[in-house]
Design brief:
This protein has two domains: 2-71, no CATH class; 82-180, no CATH class. It contains six helices and four strands. It has helices spanning 11-17, 82-93, 98-105, 109-136, 148-167, 173-180, and strands spanning 2-5, 36-47, 49-60, 65-71. Strands 1-4-3-2 form a four-stranded mixed β-sheet, covered by helices on one side. Helix 2 (82-93) packs across helix 4 (109-136), helix 3 crosses helix 4 and helix 4 packs across helix 5. Residues 28, 30-31, 33, 60, 62-63 line the site of zinc ion.
Length: 197
């Protein structure tokens, strides 16, 4: 299982830091025990160019399970970084063609189409969760546009600005959104682990 953690570095900074990256030592998602660091693995990340990241693993000695500790710019199961996927989804919602978005992002057409389809299928769930998180953080629900995809995008902006204001979160709206849903922005999981207090 992947645990998404806040990270103040850019993907390139993270890649350059290698083993020197400092990640917080998290608690086990199953039993809440403090976990120990348990080595690294290398994974590619495409942000236009492809770079390689060294990702920490942590292990729970009670559950005997290891978890990947991934920075908030990585979407589990996806090669492309959130800074590529997020704006691509926004551009397609703003009537850019899938082909134009794919070309601009430097990804195959089918990849961009996959982002759009998955986001559309999850938009209602994401919208309700991000709006609930916005309210839990003490902000008001913004004036909502028409269309469930547009509402989900509006909710991502709202939770981003609420997190920066109320929690001092760093990073852009998409990184914060990826963090809030534990990396499940585009997953097939129908029950994302909302962190909304
Ligand atoms: Zn455990």
């Amino acid at each position: 299982m992947a645990i998404v953690l806040p990270c103040s570095m850019t993907p390139s900074e993270f890649a350059a830091a290698g083993r020197e990256v400092e990640m917080p030592r998290p608690h086990c998602p199953n039993c809440s025990a403090r976990m120990s660091f348990w080595g690294f693995y290398s994974r590619p990340l495409r942000i236009g160019d492809e770079i390689r990241l060294l990702v920490h693993r942590a292990r729970c000695s009670s559950c005997r399970r290891t978890h990947a500790l991934i920075p908030d710019f990585v979407v589990p199961g996806r090669l492309d970084g959130i800074e590529v996927i997020g704006p691509g989804i926004e551009q397609m919602a703003n009537e850019a063609t899938t082909l134009a978005v794919a070309q601009r992002a430097g990804v195959p057409y089918t990849t961009a189409r996959g982002w759009r389809r998955r986001f559309v299928s999850r938009a209602e769930l994401l919208a309700s969760g991000f709006l609930a998180a916005t309210v839990a953080l003490g902000d008001l629900v913004p004036r909502l546009p028409a269309g469930v995809v547009e509402i989900a995008l509006c909710a991502i902006k709202a939770v981003g600005s609420a997190s920066r204001r109320r929690l001092g979160a760093v990073g852009d709206n998409w990184r914060i959104a990826n963090l809030v849903v534990g990396g499940h922005l585009l997953s097939t999981n129908t029950n994302p682990p909302w962190i909304c207090g």
